[in-house]
């Protein structure tokens, strides 16, 4: 997988407002927030997007959702939305799997 801004954040080569870290995942505030609370949850394992995940990544994917929930609670969110873009056609601009967690206001439906 080519190096991305997220892989550089994992390696601490560029700064980020990190709000959670464990052996498998990292969560940090989005630099272009779309809601009062907007952070990203990423795996430390290099995965381009959800379509690149394999059966062996099942536990990691579940872990990312649990981290999103844990950090949302830490941030005081009672309701929140998770968004994962898969590919350029879906709006993915950083090709390292990431989950957007948005909250802190009423969110409209449908999105996009």
UniProtKB/TrEMBL annotation:
Residues 5-112 form the HIT domain. GO terms for molecular function: catalytic activity. Gene3D superfamilies: HIT-like. A motif (Histidine triad motif) lies at residues 96-100. The active site is at 98 (tele-amp-histidine intermediate). Pfam families: HIT. PANTHER family: HISTIDINE TRIAD HIT PROTEIN (PTHR23089). This is Histidine triad nucleotide-binding protein. It comes from Pseudanabaena cinerea FACHB-1277. The lineage of its organism: Bacteria, Bacillati, Cyanobacteriota, Cyanophyceae, Pseudanabaenales.
């Amino acid at each position: 997988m080519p190096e991305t801004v997220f892989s550089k954040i994992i390696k601490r080569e560029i700064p980020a407002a990190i709000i959670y870290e464990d052996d498998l995942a990292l969560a940090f505030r989005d630099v272009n927030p779309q809601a009062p609370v907007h952070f990203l949850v990423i795996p430390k394992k290099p995965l381009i997007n959800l379509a690149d995940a394999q059966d062996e990544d099942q536990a990691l994917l579940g872990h990312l959702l649990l981290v999103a929930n844990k950090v949302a609670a830490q941030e005081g969110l009672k309701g929140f939305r998770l968004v994962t873009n898969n590919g350029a056609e879906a709006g993915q601009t950083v090709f390292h799997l990431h989950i957007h967690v948005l909250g802190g206001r009423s969110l409209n439906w449908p999105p996009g």
